[in-house]
Amino acid sequence: MKEWIRADLKKFMPYHSPEKPCVAKLDANESPYNLSQNVRDNFIKWIQENENLNIYPDTDQVELRNVLSAFYNVEPQNVICTVGSDQLIDCITRLFLEAGDVVVVPKPSFSMYKNTTVMNHGKILEVELEKDFSYEEDKLIDAVKANNAKILFLCSPNNPTGTSLTIEQMKKIIENVSCPVIVDEAYAEFDDVTMIPYINDYKNMMVLRTFSKAYGLAGARIGYGIAHTAFIEAVEIVKAPYNLSTISQFLAMEVIKDSEQYKSRMEEIKAERDFMYEQLKKFKWLQVYPSNANFLLIESERDMDKKLLEANILVRSFSIESDKVRRIRLSIGDRQSNEKVIEVFLSMED
79: which strand partners? Predict the structure, then answer.
């Protein structure tokens, strides 16, 4: 079989999520909350009454796009819906890239930018963030221009660092490059900084959003993009038909209708994030970085990831065995889960 696989993909490893039983799952930036009671009740009623699951879903997601457009004060034609924002990232790279085209991304950042670029025959160019993981917009602009880049990805707040770009920084970047700029706002609900109001000012910009994080619908896999109609129409060329299930579309609409309940949950997650940040700062043997998302980036020379795994606590490890410094991304869970992390770190004190 390997003889038939594309040469540039032979070393790629398929993605598998951990199957280890755990006492706290803090590795995927998921919400600690399940469906709100309103959404749960409406979903049960809808399932009992719905008789058209034998029919393909609305391939254009008309109702969902109408709900989202009203929520963000844009037109339905400014919205495109996909199976998570991952599918939209793949659509964008497939649409624009020809063999050898360069895609510029920050480093470190979301791994799917690199993976989908390679899968769609492009070349990735990573631009290092500053020592404090902040963005330096001129470095990104220079990298795009010097390499005639075909796409620029910006993640704000950035995964896994939690750092954000300001509106002024993003405007400067977009105005000084001549390629599509993808602003990934998967965690923007925790930051309240968005480029959505400017989609008609910048035809080369698309904003990515998801229901997986702040809205707790990771299991339903719903992402969407908001952009100028010309950008949306172009991406629709490569979007698979019937890509988003009828059930997923219904859940997304119900969550938006119950948005006030979800906003209060977001505030609770932000408060828990700030609590964890203050608690972790007390450990002198680690470095915890401030975050505008629902996770924290932590560095240390001690084996944090190993100790947490021994305690059946799942986190995302970015450590390389040869590196002296260990690096983990800790998703913000409920207070009980977060205190389990603190207990492990207390056990690691000298």
Answer: 226
Q: Residues 115, 109: contact at Cβ < 8 Å?
A: no
Beta strands in the chain (DSSP E): 24-26, 79-82, 102-107, 123-128, 151-155, 181-184, 205-210, 223-227, 286-288, 295-300, 313-317, 326-331
Tens of pLDDT, residues 225-270: 999 999 999 999 999 999 999 999 999 999 999 999 999 999 999 9
The pLDDT of 207-232, averaged and rounded, is 98
Question: What's the half-sphere exposure (Cβ side, CA atoms, 13 Å) at 279?
Answer: 18
Q: Does the pTM of the predicted model rise above 0.85? A: yes
Closest CA to 186 of 158, 210, 218: 210
Which tokens sit at 98?
A: 């020809």
Per-residue pLDDT tens over the stretch 47-67: 999 878 899 999 999 999 999
Cα–Cα distance for residue pair 179/176, rounded to 1 Å: 9
Question: How is 55-74 classified by DSSP, letter by letter?
Answer: S---TT-HHHHHHHHHHHTS
CB neighbours (10 Å) of residue 148? 10
* CB-based contacts of 336, cutoff 8 Å, min separation 6: 24
Report the alpha-carbon distance of residue 84 to residue 90 in Å, rounded: 11
CA distances from 197 to 104, 152, 167, 255, 344 (A): 24, 20, 11, 22, 43
C-alpha pair distances (Å), 87 with each of 10, 92, 184, 284 = 22, 9, 13, 41
- 254: helix, coil or strand? helix
Of 207, 257, 251, the residue nearest 232 (C-alpha): 207
**HEC states along 199-247?**
CCCCCCEEEEEECCCCCCCHHHCCEEEEECHHHHHHHCCCCCCCCCCHH
The pair of structure tokens assigned to 330 is 């800790």
Please, which residues bridge with residue 331 across strands? 295
Which residues contact residue 238 at a Cβ distance below 8 angstroms, ignoring those fewer than 6 apart? 91, 94, 95
| Burial of residue 205 (number of CB atoms within 10 Å: 0-12, 13-18, 19+) | buried
User: How confident is the model over 309-324, as pLDDT tens digits?
Assistant: 999 999 999 876 557 8
